[in-house]
Design a protein that fits this description.
Pfam families: Zip. The chain is mainly alpha-helical and 169 residues long. Helix content is 75%, strand content 0%. The chain is globular. The two termini are 25 Å apart.
Length: 169
């Protein structure tokens, strides 16, 4: 989560337009509220000591400002070539981290039920519930297909929204 938060800070730090900064800041604030509540629940679930919970929470809360400081520092570089290289490097690292987490960590866990050997021991499978009135459908490969269709549909919605906005960053 700290790497994710760091790159959110980078996204805030590279903004030169005040309007875009405030839009991203509001989105990050709402997103971080959910992430931090989830993190607190996980700490409680694993009976983390108070010292560990406090230390890790302080570290996590410092990562967004650290990302902003790094991005602002890179924007302050005198040489335009090095400034561009630094920005491209940070943006590429942020995009690569996002793609890695989405494709390697989250999607496989969501697309495969625990019965199929996926899920990394977690029960994130809402559709394939054993209490389903149609247990044969719940354990079939159709569930993965339905989830994949919804993932593709979500991506299509974001592409459509981005094409309506028309801004190219």
């Amino acid at each position: 989560m700290s790497v994710h938060s760091f790159f959110e800070g980078v996204a805030l730090g590279v903004q030169n337009d005040a309007h875009a900064f405030w839009q991203i800041l509001i989105a990050v604030l709402f997103h971080e509220i959910l992430c931090c509540v989830s993190y607190g629940v996980q700490l409680a679930k694993h009976n983390a000591s108070r010292k560990y919970a406090w230390t890790s929470s302080v570290f996590l809360s410092a990562t967004i400002p650290a990302g902003m400081v790094l991005a602002t520092t890179i924007d302050g570089i005198e040489s335009e070539m090095w400034q561009q290289m630094g920005r491209y490097w940070l943006e590429g690292l942020a995009a690569g981290t996002f793609v890695h987490v989405a494709l390697v960590e989250l999607l496989p866990m969501e697309l495969h039920s625990d019965e199929e050997g996926g899920g990394h021991g977690h029960s994130h499978n809402v559709i394939a519930d054993t209490t389903s009135p149609h247990p044969k459908f719940a354990n079939s490969h159709w569930v993965s297909l339905v989830k994949s269709i919804f993932v593709a549909f979500g991506i299509a919605i974001f592409v459509f929204i981005k094409s309506l906005i028309g801004e190219h960053h």
